Amino acid sequence: MSSDEPPPRYSSCSLIKYTRGPVSPVANCIVLYRTVSYCVCVCPAVPPTINDVGVSPANISVVVGKSKVLVCPATGVPAPRVTWFKDDVEVVPGDPWNVRVLSNGRRLEISGAQVDHAGQYRWLAKNVAGRVDRQYTLHVLG
C-alpha cells in the first residue's frame, strides 16, 4: 500500500481494536497490519448512549400476576455490555423469581409480577469508551 493510497476502512478489517476517541469509527480506522486474508485496524470507540425512543418511563406500575417489560435500548462501538440490577444486586438470567433478560440486555421481562418484584431497577451499559445507566422504580399493585 503506497503512502498516497487511503487506508482500508472499517468494513475491510476483520480484527479490530477499539480505542477511546470522539470520531466516527466507520470513517477513521487506521490499519496497523494487512495481509491478503485479513487486516488489523485500530478504530475510535464510541461511548454508549441511550436511544430515548421506546425507553420505559422511570416510574412503572404493574398489577400482581401480570407481566411487565422494561426497555432501554443503547448503542455504542463496540456494542456495549448491558447489565440489569434490582436494589443494587445484579439480575442473573434464570433467577427463580420469573425475570428474564432479553435482546442482549436491552429488555428486562418480569413475568407474573409479585410484591417481591417491586423496587429500584438500574440498567447499565458499558464499553471501552464509557458507560451510561438509567434508573427505574417498579411498583407492584394489588
Describe, in plain words, how this protein is organized in 3D.
It is elongated and about 65 Å long. Helices cover 0% and strands 51% of the residues. Mean pLDDT is 79; it is low at 1-15 and 21-27. The protein is built from no helices and twelve strands. Strands 4-12-11-7-8 form a five-stranded mixed β-sheet, with no helix packed on it. Strands 1, 2, 3 and 6 form a four-stranded mixed β-sheet that branches. It has two domains: 10-46, no CATH class; 49-141, Immunoglobulin-like (Sandwich).
Secondary structure elements and their pairing?
Blueprint: E1 15-20, E2 30-34, E3 39-50, E4 59-63, E5 68-71, E6 74-77, E7 81-86, E8 89-90, E9 99-102, E10 107-110, E11 119-127, E12 130-141
Parallel strand pairs: 1-3, 4-12
Antiparallel strand pairs: 2-3, 3-6, 5-10, 7-8, 7-11, 9-10, 11-12
**CATH fold group of the largest domain:** Immunoglobulin-like
* Derived structural class: mainly beta
CATH class of the largest domain: Mainly Beta
CATH architecture of the largest domain: Sandwich
Instruction: Order the strands across the largest sheet as they lie in space.
Output: 4-12-11-7-8
Instruction: Profile the largest sheet.
Output: 5 strands, mixed
The total beta strand count reads: 12
Tell me the distance between the termini: 69 Å
Please tell me what the overall shape is. Answer: elongated
Poorly predicted spans: 1-15, 21-27
Number of helices: 0
Chain-averaged pLDDT: 79
Number of domains: 2
Beta-strand share of residues: over 45%
Oligomer: single chain
CATH homologous superfamily name of the largest domain?
Answer: Immunoglobulins
**Nearest-angstrom radius of gyration?**
20 Å
Q: Give the % helix.
A: under 10%
The run of helices and strands is EEEEEEEEEEEE
